[in-house]
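User: I'm writing a tutorial on reading structure tokens. Could you give me a worked example: one chain, its sequence, then its tokens, then a sentence or two explaining what the tokens reveal?
Assistant: Sure. Here is the example chain.
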Amino acid sequence: MEGSLQGQDRTSKVEESVASHSAVDEMCSMLKENRAGKRRGIYSVCSANRLVLEAAFAQAKQDGSPLLIEATCNQVNQDGGYTGQTPTQFRDYVHAIANENNFDTDRLILGGDHLGPNPWRARSAEAAMEKACTMVAAYAAAGFNKIHLDASMRCGDDPHVLANEEIAERAARLCEVAEANASGKPVYVIGTEVPTPGGAQEEMEIEVTSTASLKETLDVHYRAFSRRNLLAAWERIVGVVVQPGVEFGNETVADYVPAKAGALIQSILQQQGIVFEAHSTDYQTAESLRQLVSGHFGILKVGPELTFMMREGIFGLARIEEEWIAGEQRSEIRAVIERVMIENPENWKAYYHGDESQVRFARAYSLSDRIRYYWPNVEISKALARLIQNLQESPAPLPLVAQYLPRQAEAIRAGAIVNDPIAIIHHKVRESLARYAEACGVMLGG
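And here are its predicted structure tokens:
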């Protein structure tokens, strides 16, 4: 590697430069421990769902760990994204939930994921980059202090294959904007995984990033940062996104195979102070997550799995409601979700294929969990509120809970949670979060 990746340990310099952000400082210390061979890392919660975030705050509070929450360029941007929130609004939304759950916001790290021209890639490159610059400025000004710069996607008038030098130049341009608009000194992640944001289709042929590709990514980005006098920001790069061989589709998961990533794992130690960031780690086994962290994948992204687990909890509660609540009082949430999704197919139609029964199954149970886009819908929100109210006013007996949500019934019996639908949903989500916390070495007592 060229220039500034040699010599002084970059992680120490990052810690010094972000010392005012205690949670970021702690994250950098975790990543330093990871490079030193300790199974230590941080998981990133990539969700805007309130129930998921409440569960995440509870898990991090119990573990005494910092919490990293990230928004993608498609979720949150100056035009609102699919959540309808700008970066400032998302920050305030997350902080409000943190305060409601007595979580110290000084322990919170906000990140921006895949920040680049992706939402506007149908436009010309210059028009898309102008929009991307405005977005990055908004993220930086709102206090997001972990920023993933990703300009890898081709725009409307780009050649079919975008040159690595051009990708790096655009990333450096975005970094320049972030530096100019941030009140502090954010840390950065560069690089991208395959496929680009949006997720895999079912035919998955996963190729592990080569060591040559990693070196070229770092080299071309270093040169682009240097040309724009951004070497001070370069010293705050904490991670690089690569493909370790993990992905998930609608029904299948590509599990991590450490042997296939052996050369890649060793190559990161030839660079100063950075770790790998792994995307699409959803549904990996506990052992695979531990192996990823041990292989210097110090940052693990998880998103759809968390809303999938939330959905499992809600569907279980819906079955309980069918058995326990009088017909005219039921929420009928399953029917409401199905109807709303059919009437508004834009968030799932391009992703689910097959005959009518296959598509119906995917709408409900796909691992890609396109239902997550529909929870804010007014009708679905009302049905969920009715479901929760029904089972709060008339809690189901334990044998019925055990029939559909056995692990939650065990937790109720053990006194770990109360027989309340919100507590049950949180517990479902925390089953996943606990797996990540344990793999990252941050679980209390883990």
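What the tokens reveal: Confidence is low (pLDDT under 50) at residues 1-8, 15-20. The radius of gyration is 22 Å.
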